[in-house]
Design a protein that fits this description.
9 helices, globular, disordered N terminus, binds adenosine-5'-diphosphate, binds magnesium ion, RNA helicase
Length: 245
Amino acid sequence: SGENFKNFDKIALQVTGSDVPQYITSFEDAGLRTLLLDNIKKAGYVKPTPVQKGSIAVILAKRDLIACAVTGSGKTAAYLVPVMNILLEQGVAPSHGMVQKPEVVIVAPTRELAIQIHREACKFAYNSVLKSVIIYGGTVTSHQRSNVQAGCNILVATAGRLKDFLERGVFDFSCVKFLILDEADRMLDMGFGPDIEKIAAHPTMPPKGVRRTCMFSATFPEEVQALAAGYMEDYIFVTTGTVGG
Ligand code: ADP
Ligand code: MG
């Protein structure tokens, strides 16, 4: 068991767990693909935020992760950048068909949040083979379904709509490398625990330890800790916060 504690611009980054990967200090030093680095720059990102420094290193090392940091701290890119880099390294091919096999599944509590995540994924995927597709509730499924079937490497979904699509056999999760639960605390508060369970325990979903699981949360209450214990293996815990005084 190891522990790092460093100050960055008065924001503390704490990374705990076994064999903690060294945090990254810049996007350039993270060994990212040129295309991804270019897209990060185009998005206006100059240097990683503290939660990105810790999380990008952990995900690139293919470890399970829980990251807790306040709203606005950059948690979206903290997982999108490393998972997209891994997909690009592995040479994921675009696909299309009735049953889609995404490599990354990102579950979010609300449609607004899912839209934000998908937009950021599209920016980082610009000019690459990677395709992000979004599905959410409150609208008819037909249009979303044909979008999905036109090709889907990265699936961004609200929990309830994803559960519905799974019941209709739209997805096969056998290629999933990363299951990302964004705003895990809020999803549990909103009662999506059973939907998350159906997603994580889907018959085609690789088990924990085979797929990687990453959870992002503003808070870390007992319910989120229990979720982590069920879905993760030997996870790394990244937290950030303002240094007092
Ligand atoms: P969180 O999920 O922690 O609430 P977001 O991922 O939504 O935070 O990011 C908040 C805002 O900061 C977004 O507008 C995002 O584009 C921007 N942002 C994230 N990381 C960086 C960065 N490294 N440099 C500049 N802006 C960033
Ligand atoms: Mg967020």
